[in-house]
Amino acid sequence: MKIERGDWQGRVPKVAGGEGRDVARWSTLRVLTGVEVPPNCANFPAMVLSTSSPSWLAAALALFSILSLLVPANALYFYVEGRQPKCFFEDLPKDTLVAGKFETEVINQGSNTYSVDPNLKMLITVDETFDNDHRVVSKRENNSGRFTFSAADAGQHRICFTAETDATSGGWLSNSQGAVKVSLDIAIGETSKIETEDKDKMKDIVQRVRDLNSRLHDIRREQVYQREREAEFRDQSETTNSRVVRWALIQVAVLSAACAWQLSHLRSFFIKQKLT
């Protein structure tokens, strides 16, 4: 590649046939030419790249390679040796959401390739090492699955994966080293893509819970209404009973007065009859 040195004018480097570029162009220049560029571009002479097509093609490929390295990747894979657990340690703040998904493959001893084993089981455990290995998650999945948990307290958490089979004794897993390949994609935080489906499920569950809460509130309001009606009916019944008792007492008093008057009248009548 042809490189021409310009004057010391404190300018950003220029590409032949174009205007000034940003400072990030120096990283591409360093990859293509091997020239060590000072951190301060203002103290470096301006350079002009030749406009030949191969140079621009190489620059484009190099730039694409650099940009491809900037893409974040959270996926990893590891090998499980027999029934020995493979563990990872992570310091998590309180109330941090951790979501992950995994897939497993079993080695084929004949062809030295990996394939999916439907009989394989994976045990996922999460322990709080700061709290006497208090276990917060213990989940048994098939050859692939998901797990999600939220850190109840801040501290170091141990996430372990253990391969299991339905066989009670012996088998390929008992004497094979690195027989299970586990592809793990794990994300920490609310903004990860892994828990999107889980969030959708959680949203569905949350919506159902909200519907149930609404129904419970309706039932509660109905119960309060029935209690109010019961209180009104009780008050009305007590009023009716008091009126019945009052009228009964009035009737007894009237009857008693009538009886007393009749007795008094008969007595006076008999007395008059004897006197006559």
TrEMBL record:
<dbReference type="InterPro" id="IPR009038">
    <property type="entry name" value="GOLD_dom"/>
</dbReference>
<keyword id="KW-0732">Signal</keyword>
<keyword id="KW-0812">Transmembrane</keyword>
<feature type="transmembrane region" description="Helical">
    <location>
        <begin position="244"/>
        <end position="263"/>
    </location>
</feature>
<feature type="transmembrane region" description="Helical">
    <location>
        <begin position="56"/>
        <end position="80"/>
    </location>
</feature>
<dbReference type="Pfam" id="PF01105">
    <property type="entry name" value="EMP24_GP25L"/>
</dbReference>
<protein>
    <submittedName>
        <fullName>Membrane protein</fullName>
    </submittedName>
</protein>
<dbReference type="InterPro" id="IPR015720">
    <property type="entry name" value="Emp24-like"/>
</dbReference>
<comment type="similarity">
    <text>Belongs to the EMP24/GP25L family.</text>
</comment>
<dbReference type="GO" id="GO:0016020">
    <property type="term" value="C:membrane"/>
</dbReference>
<keyword id="KW-1133">Transmembrane helix</keyword>
<keyword id="KW-0472">Membrane</keyword>
